[in-house]
Design goal:
Largest sheet: 10 strands, antiparallel
Order of helices and strands: HHHHEHEEHEEHHEEHEEHEH
Helix content: 25-40%
Distance between the termini: 61 Å
Oligomer: single chain
Length: 365
């Protein structure tokens, strides 16, 4: 009997640790409820209540088999989150031979007995980030289907990050100053294991480099980490890859596309050389519906050069409402100089393959 109780307690502890991993990966409490636990038929919890505590109480009543199944499902959702959510993506048109060369070389790295392997840390963050090398190392290969394969690669990365805090992280004096606050966050420099994603799409002859922590990083960090990721791919390939796909020329198309997406931010240059920057205050609004915006685009006869856009699509389900977001972030100087490109896009709020593929259908027109 004591052995059974001990096994159940270990499972409960594992559940709590997996729950905390979602927070470490930056998922807010509302998304944990609606995108992770509601679909698994956990009890609905009010926003004002402690969701983790309620979940822990619920799993304490489960039998061991049901709890193991729940933990396995939660880990699968976490892996999907790691693969798809909040990525800065570069797309490369490459040959099948190039994809196979990348595939084979990374698989060889995974089979090697390198003591610096990161597989032991996946998907957790190590207690001491300094034990992780700054060099990119492969962690795991995942075969999505016969035409699509994913490699997870990781390295130690230093950057500023937003931390979600709970009441236990705050002093009594800080708590006394706050009223009706649902979530508190802090910003600080971190050094941790960061997991990026390489996607080999044999069907489309396309390579995707998905840089993680898209929302957290500054423009300078983004550039530095992308260069490191590209250098890793070129190293295991033994040569250069083609130039990434350019999206600067497509921003106008994304603006005018009748695809149910809401334009929440937009930057452009009129034919008279006037720079315009537009942004909604509420992400539920749509710039294209504003009369002044409609009049503005008509005034310039819909002829303008765009360099940045952010669009949002809404979804409703029995488990709760959610959004997916697409951003193309350029700058005015790019369209003032000939031959400039925007070769990275932000694909955000994706918790699985269907969300991500939906954004791809809007991006790759």
């Amino acid at each position: 009997m004591n052995t059974l109780i001990s096994a159940k307690k270990l499972l409960q502890q594992e559940f709590s640790e997996v729950y905390d991993l979602f927070r470490k990966y930056g998922i807010g409490q509302s998304h944990i409820r609606t995108r992770v636990f509601n679909p698994l038929k956990f009890p609905r919890v009010k926003i004002s209540d402690d969701h983790k505590e309620a979940c822990e109480k619920y799993v304490s009543l489960m039998n061991e088999n049901d709890l193991r199944t729940a933990i396995r499902s939660i880990k699968e959702l976490l892996e999907k989150y790691i693969i798809y959510n909040n990525k800065i993506v570069q797309f490369y048109d490459v040959s099948a031979a190039t994809l196979r060369a990348i595939d084979n070389n990374i698989e060889k790295q995974l089979l090697s007995s390198d003591p610096a392997s990161l597989a032991g840390y996946y998907p957790d963050f190590p207690a001491d980030s300094k034990v992780i090398s700054e060099d990119i190392l492969p962690i795991k290969s995942i075969k999505i289907n016969d035409e699509l394969k994913v490699f997870l690669v990781g390295s130690r990365r230093e950057y500023y990050k937003i931390f979600q805090l709970n009441k236990g992280d705050l002093t009594p004096s800080a708590l006394s100053m706050m009223q009706d606050v649902k979530e508190v966050s802090a910003k600080g420099m971190v050094s941790e294991l960061s997991i990026d994603v390489l996607v080999l799409d044999y069907n489309s002859s396309r390579l995707e480099l998905r840089l993680s922590n898209a929302v957290s990083m500054s423009k300078m960090n983004t550039s530095n980490f992308q260069k490191k990721l590209i250098k890793y791919v070129q190293g295991i390939l033994g040569g250069k890859i083609n130039d990434p796909i350019d999206f600067l020329s497509k921003v106008n198309d994304y603006y005018f596309a009748n695809d149910l997406g809401r334009v929440v931010a937009f930057d452009f240059l009129t034919e008279e050389g006037v720079e315009r920057t537009e942004k909604v205050r509420n992400r539920k609004d749509d710039l294209k519906n504003e009369s002044y915006h409609i009049g503005g685009t008509e005034k310039v006869n819909k002829i303008f050069q765009s360099h940045s856009i952010a669009k949002v699509w809404d979804f409703k389900s029995d488990d709760g409402d959610h959004q997916v977001s697409l951003k193309v972030k350029g700058s005015l100087r790019l369209i003032l100089k000939a031959g400039q490109t925007v070769d990275q896009v932000y694909l955000l709020d994706c918790f699985g393959e269907s969300d991500y593929n939906y954004l791809l259908s809007k991006l790759l027109l």
